[in-house]
Amino acid sequence: EVQLVESGGGLVQPGGSLRLSCAASGFVFSNYDMTWVRQVPGKGLEWVSSINKGGGTIYYGDSVKGRFTISRDNAKNTGYLQMNSLKPEDTTIYYCVTVSWSESRDYWGQGTQVTVSS
Q1: pLDDT digits (tens, 9 = 90+) for 22-54
Q2: Which CA distances in Å does 64 have to 4, 32, 50?
């Protein structure tokens, strides 16, 4: 059974940090690029960051550049999103997505809630 399970969300004060994890099982994680997206209330999904399957190519959205760091450990079948200097506008649900372009296949996690509030 294919699973992507996010964890690490929670409540944090402005300026604080959280580390999201995305644990993969049931497929070959190292064959998939990984992306984090987040839900924008009333607007749909916002792309946050992407990392290729080998970890050597990384991109960030403008709203998180310099504050968030994406990474992955293929040996552990897990991806991460380190979020620093969090702002109230970062509050939303974050989803992990893995994509295999060669297989035209993608998998989504269930999401994890991040709340930034004092």
Answers
A1: 999 999 999 999 999 999 888 899 999 999 999
A2: 23, 23, 12
Q: Looking up tokens 């964890």, which residue turns up?
A: 7
Task: Name residues whose C-beta falls within 8 Å of residue 10's C-beta, 6 or more positions apart in sequence.
Answer: 18, 113, 114, 115
Rounded to the nearest 5 degrees, what angle is found at the Cα of 91, between the Cα atoms of 15 and 50? 90
Give the span between the Cα atoms of 46 and 43, in whole angstroms: 8
Alpha carbon 90 to its chain centroid, in Å, reads 13
Closest by CA to 72, choosing from 95, 50, 46, is 50
76-101: per-residue pLDDT in tens? 999 999 999 999 999 999 999 999 98
